[in-house]
Amino acid sequence: MEALLHQVLAGLATGGIYASLALALVMIYQATHLVNFAQGELAMFATYFAWTLINAGVPYWPAFFATVAFAFVLGVVIERVVIRPVENAPVLAVVVVFIALLVILNSVTGWIYSYTIKTFPSPFPTGGVFGTKLLSPHELGAIGVTLVVLVLLYLFFRFTPLGLAMRAAAQNPDSARLVGIRVGWMLALGWGLAAAIGAVAGMMVAPIVFLDPNMMGGILLYAFAAALVGGVDNPWGAVLGGFMVGVLENVLGAFVIGNELKLAVALALIIGVLVVKPSGFFGKVFVTRV
Amino acid sequence: MAALLEVSNLHAAYGLTRVLHGISFVMQEGSITTLLGANGAGKTTTLRALCQMVKTEGEIRFCGARIDRRATEDIVRLRIAHVPDGRGTFVNLTTEENLRLGAYARKDKDRAGVDADLERIYDYFPRLKERRAQQAGTLSGGEQQMLAVSRALMLRPKLMLLDEPSFGLAPLIVKELFGILRTVNAKEKVSMLVVEQNAAMALELADHAYLIETGRVVLSGSADAIRRDDNVRRSYLGY
Amino acid sequence: MSRRQIILLAVLLLAACALPLLVSDYRVFQFNLVLVYAIALMGLNVLTGYNGQISLGHGAFYAIGAYCAAILMDKAGLPYWATLPVAAFVCLVAGFLFGLPALRLEGLYLALATFALGVSLPSLLKYHHLEKWTGGVQGIVIAKPDPPFGLPINADQWLYYFTLLVTVIMFVIAWNLLRGRVGRALVAIRDNHVATEAMGVNNAIYKSLAFGVSAMYTGVAGALGAIAVQYVAPDSFGIFLSLTFLIGIVIGGLASIPGAIYGALFIQFVPNVADEISKAAPWAIFGIFLLGFVYLMPMGIAGAVRMALARLQRRAQNRQRST
Questions:
Q1: How many CB atoms lie within 10 A of CB C192?
Q2: Which of A279, B112, B190, C73 has the fewest CB atoms within 10 Å of its CB?
Q3: Phi, psi of B61 (to 5 degrees)
């Protein structure tokens, strides 16, 4: 019983990370109807940036926030420079551009930092008052950070004029232009935010899986599964989906199918949802006019 | 004194299809002008051309300065508000969120000012106040039209472009809406360019009228004169 | 096909035959892989270039073909050439089966599903319950086949000629398929699947068949590749293999038969050169080339060649006219 509870709670911890990444994916999807295949590599690249700062002696939390800012700027720049030219291009061209981004980020990181695995520190003290028998302090901390990020995002989108403008631009770009919203910059902002969220997710997961250029591959898959399960146009669904996928992965992996096939769970979820209920459990069904 | 809006020899095309073939007209400040014409005449395209939502050739001057070749978002900042056909409601946002977005392009964005404007709008349209927290997509057609007009008013525009505001609305509601438009025009000094298929109601609302056929202005004059024109009577007023 | 094109092809074929006799064994091995990749890229091109279904997981079919060959040679003692028809058949069926649910997935979603397949493939191959067959993490080692009938060439050269033969056969089949009704249907479905459905074309059959045929080609390539490399292991079939194929067809030229060859040359030799700089360099170069091609040369090398030839032809015609 305690083992099950431990797996569920650990699943919530990793689920929080999936939820963050899934949220980033959904944000970009809502605004552009594009799936950001490079989301994982962006997060990984930002995490390496954090590692560089920390290794140079910068204390953890300043490095953390500097990384978030760095990721934000990187996201904005990528949207304006790389994505904008292919905004209205055929699907294959867009997919190819994303793959190119993925590949470049991955290889540049490997080039600069080599492929040897590195450790990444956790800001949450081991032992002591924090942590319980069921959850390590870092896992608890990761859940906490995830929740803080989600709450901040919610407040931003719900209560600030800029957040409102971004929502409007994503839902109805033509009408948004008619009230004077610069839709192009809203897209860039969306990318910046998504990259920043990804950076946070990367920094939370790196202490657990260790830092290496290929660390986000599997995680991205879980995030895709989470986004699809929750409905790819529904931010709440993405968050809920993330926690669900995290718990499911851990429980199934520990008790049913063994750790090797955990990725297969993500694959099955993705294909299953796409084939059976493409709008996800919480999404809207879209009918395209022919 | 320069006219509020001067359009000279305006051409517009969707891709390779030319829709406007040299439209010219003038609007004075404070007036309500209507563009009449049948379906496909180019009325909606004219409004979209004014906001540069379609490629144009020719000159458009607003308060003496050229606005063709500027981006839509910049034109809005000059205080030209466009109520598009189909209303362009943000259906997943609440009524009040829609209204607040109307004020987005204003330079004077102090919260108190916007709140005060919001209250004034609710005075004109009490039904919107009732539905302020409701999702805008669930409003009735008439209410969404009022919402679209209100959103434009939140900009404190100098010029309002309205594209078929009577479309799909019951005559009583149109009367109510047009009455409010006339009030707003008089009290708030908002000039209006109204595109309409419903010629009868449009001519009652407006001071001046232009008749557009296949992308050209074919008739112009005061609303009274146009209403009494025989051809217009027969073709567009039905008697 | 014009007479000039036939002559050109004959010359190329002669050159390809002469090649192994002129270069070192290692180069022969490399060109062998070029042929293998050309078949794989032809397969992916049928699906993605001609039919518009984006697959980011084609490495899976390559792996299936490779493991078919390895398992049959290692466990069942089948001769290497007999594994090809089996690999072809297995992948045809696997591709068709995968194509059925894929029918409901458009563009981006299909890319996503195949991407998931590509990422999770190594872990599926490492599954310990299948270890008896797949050799688990260690994989399977197979022996290089000897030239038959005691021919006076070495094993590498023989394998090259064998692969060349298979390549020519498969390209001829593809060429026939694509220039006829099937090819036109595939392209029409890619460009406007609603119109084709309305015209009475059975989209579902064509699309599933495209998946099956595409998988078959890539599977045969996988088998040939396994025989050439003499080794299969899960970690060589990760997502980057699938992405390599995608890069190959984009840079080589979508919806183009010569494109498969240009692309194969590119993905085989660029890493060799780039490896000298750093282990990571090949992929960075791939990525930059990808971006460059998408923005500047979306028709790929094949398209550029076509444009250059057309320009030369026009210049020749102008000169003729002015004399």
A1: 12
A2: B112
A3: -115, 130
Q: What is the DSSP letter of A211?
A: B
Strand C231-232 to C140-141 pairing: antiparallel
Put residue B197 in one of left, alpha, beta given phi > 0 → left and psi -120 to 50 → alpha.
alpha
Residues 6+ apart with CB under 8 A from C170: C39, C42, C217, C220
Q: Length of chain B in residues, anyone?
A: 239
Q: How far is C-alpha A187 from the geometric centre of its chain's CA atoms?
A: 17
This complex has an ipTM of: 0.88
Contacts of A171 in chain B (CB under 8 A): 90-93
Name the residue facing A178 among B76, B92, B97 (closest C-beta): B76
A284 Rama class: left (phi>0) / alpha (psi -120 to 50) / beta: beta
CA A8 – CA A172 distance, rounded (Å): 39
Smallest CA-to-CA distance from C49 within A277, A92, B70, B44 is with A92
Considering only CB atoms, which residues of chain C are within 8 Å of chain A? 48, 52, 54, 56, 101, 104-105, 107-109, 111-113, 115-117, 119-120, 123-124, 126-128, 194, 239, 243, 246-247, 250, 254, 278-284, 286-288, 290-291, 294-295, 298
What is the signed CA dihedral for C137, C142, C144, C146, rounded to 10 degrees? -170
pLDDT tens readout for residues B40-73: 888 889 999 999 998 899 999 999 889 988 999 9
* Tokens 């004109």 sit on residue: B124
Sign of CA dihedral A228, A229, A233, A239: negative
User: Distance between CA atoms of A169 and A184, rounded to whole angstroms?
Assistant: 9
Ranges of each domain in chain C: 27-239
Amino acid symbol at C198? A
**Which three-class secondary structure string do you get for C209-251?**
HHHHHHHHHHHHHHHHHHHHHCEECHHHHCHHHHHHHHHHHHH
Identify whether A275 is part of a domain. no
In angstroms, the CA B138 to CA B55 distance is 34
**How far is CA C158 from its chain centroid?**
21
- How confident is the model over C295-316, as a mean pLDDT? 85
- Interface list for A 165-184 with B (CB within 8 A): 165, 167-168, 171-172, 174-183
The DSSP symbol for B94 reads B
Domain B5-89+155-237 has CATH 1.10.10.920: no
Q: How far is residue C219's CA from residue C210's CA, in Å, rounded to a whole number?
A: 14
Q: Token digits for C93?
A: 């069926």
pLDDT of residue C323: 62
Domain count within chain A: 1
Task: Give the CB-side neighbour count of residue A28, counting CA atoms within 13 A.
Answer: 29
Chains contacting C with at least 3 CB pairs below 8 Å?
A
Q: Closest by alpha carbon to B46, among B193, B223, B209, B156? A: B193
Q: Tell me the residue range of the domain where A71 lies.
A: 2-13+27-217
Measured between beta carbons, the chain B residues lying within 8 angstroms of A286 are none
Is A150 domain-assigned? yes
Of B79, B55, B54, nearest to B65 (Cα)? B79
| A161 touching B (Cβ < 8 Å) | yes
Q: Is the CB of residue A283 less than 8 Å from the CB of residue A234?
A: yes
CA distances from A6 to A54, A130, A256 (A): 31, 16, 15
Q: Do chains A and B touch (3 or more CB pairs under 8 A)?
A: yes
Question: Around Cβ A52, how many Cβ atoms within 10 Å?
Answer: 14
- Model confidence over A185-211: pLDDT tens digits? 999 999 999 999 999 999 999 998 889
**CA distances, B77 to each of A271, B51, B108 (Å):** 47, 11, 11
Quick one: tokens of A125? 């003290």
Q: Which residue is associated with the tokens 């096939």? A: A261
B231 membership: H or E segment, kind and range:
helix B230-232
Q: Is pTM, for the whole model, over 0.90?
A: no
Round to whole Å and give the CA distance between C195 and C203: 10
